[in-house]
Amino acid sequence: MTIRNYTNTLNSHLYLSPAHLHEISSDFLRHFTGKMSTIGVTPGDGEAKTVSLRAAIRAQQSNSKDVSAALPSTIDSAVDVLKIKEWEVGRFQDEIAANQGIRIRRRPPTGPPSHYVGPFQFRIQSEGNTPRNILEEIIWNKDVEVSQLKERMPLYALTKAMANAPPARDFVGALRASQLRTGLPALIAEVKKASPSRGVLREDFDPVEIAEAYEKGGAACLSVLTDAKYFQGSFENLEIIRNAGVKCPLLCKEFIIDAWQIYYARTKGADAVLLIAAVLPDHDIGYMTKICKILGLTALVEVHNEREMDRVLRIEGVELIGINNRDLETFEVNISNTKKLLEGEHGQVIRQKDIIVVGESGMFSPDDIAYVQEAGVKAVLVGESIVKQSDPRTGITQLFGKDISS
């Protein structure tokens, strides 16, 4: 159906399905706004029912089983219709995130809507289609990136590639062994070239050389950044470190939003993956944790606050929890966050379940290590304070106040 054909039908209303607000619908909205009433069509009890387009969209995105029952009978003016994408979608992103207990919204499916003035096209940014913080921006970009990768490498191709991947190693076992050997929190040393908050951390970045130095310096495990756009990392770095013969188990430090990424990490030699509670709802964390177990991987589930800790402790199968001391909104770091989240009932449940807690962000000195260890941490994930050192082994010794390599 074209705009010209629809005009020739002599309809007095424009009927659109809220489930199909794609570019064709957008063209119709632009053309007919102010010329005729726009009405949403939604199924209900075996028959199509017409209501305001905004109301239909609200019912559609709330996933109501009885869609028609959730809809008001009033019809909005056509003038409001073009505001739907930038206003309604963002509002629903907030509602969905709140219901799932997550703080990072997923990317709206439409993105900023297009507008036209003569031959010129432009897009208006608004709260609904603009990331609110750096992590949300990363996740929205990751959504696009993963969708493109999945088209080039479907899951069946990854399952075949996993047959040639090296066997997964015991990430948790390596942490426990190191902590028992040194009496200090086990070190997960991070191979990281850059970060959004600090920029480039090391110009002469050789991932294999750094990984080998970490291992010689006493690291129990390594974390390898694989995000290219914001951290200048890559899955190739993960793969070449594994193929270089580094014995430390490897954590794939990726922003995982899709189970496909776990399979992909496995093909590149990962022994563990990161799952962020601020990004993933409970059912995704539980599902992905099970996939990790099937593939022989460890899931490090990261939390930032008490609500996320409550959620994660209710999920079966979690054996490794990371407490990130970096505020998602301000990017400020406060290691007292670790102590706060391990006090009281949380700490009791963690001890009962024998969960290893990993302290993340803000550790630069032996005093910092002692502080989080006293709080109950069994391992620490550290990148900036050691990767910036000309000799990372020296950085590890300075961090712990002693040589932990033997």
UniProtKB/TrEMBL annotation:
Pathway(s) the chain acts in: Amino-acid biosynthesis; L-tryptophan biosynthesis; L-tryptophan from chorismate: step 4/5
SUPFAM superfamilies per record: Ribulose-phoshate binding barrel (SSF51366)
Annotated Indole-3-glycerol phosphate synthase domain residues: 135-399
UniProt entry tagged with the keyword Manganese: no
Gene3D superfamilies, per database record: Aldolase class I
Source organism superkingdom: Eukaryota
InterPro entries named in the record: Aldolase_TIM (IPR013785), Indole-3-glycerol_P_synth (IPR045186), Indole-3-glycerol_P_synth_dom (IPR013798), Indole-3-GlycerolPSynthase_CS (IPR001468), RibuloseP-bd_barrel (IPR011060)
Enzyme class: lyase
EC numbers, comma separated: 4.1.1.48
GO molecular function, one term: indole-3-glycerol-phosphate synthase activity
PROSITE patterns, A to Z: IGPS
Keywords, in A-Z order: Amino-acid biosynthesis, Aromatic amino acid biosynthesis, Decarboxylase, Lyase, Tryptophan biosynthesis
Catalyzed reactions: 1-(2-carboxyphenylamino)-1-deoxy-D-ribulose 5-phosphate + H(+) = (1S,2R)-1-C-(indol-3-yl)glycerol 3-phosphate + CO2 + H2O
Keyword Magnesium: no
One annotated GO biological process: L-tryptophan biosynthetic process
PANTHER family: INDOLE-3-GLYCEROL-PHOSPHATE SYNTHASE, TRYPTOPHAN BIOSYNTHESIS PROTEIN
Name this protein carries in UniProt: indole-3-glycerol-phosphate synthase
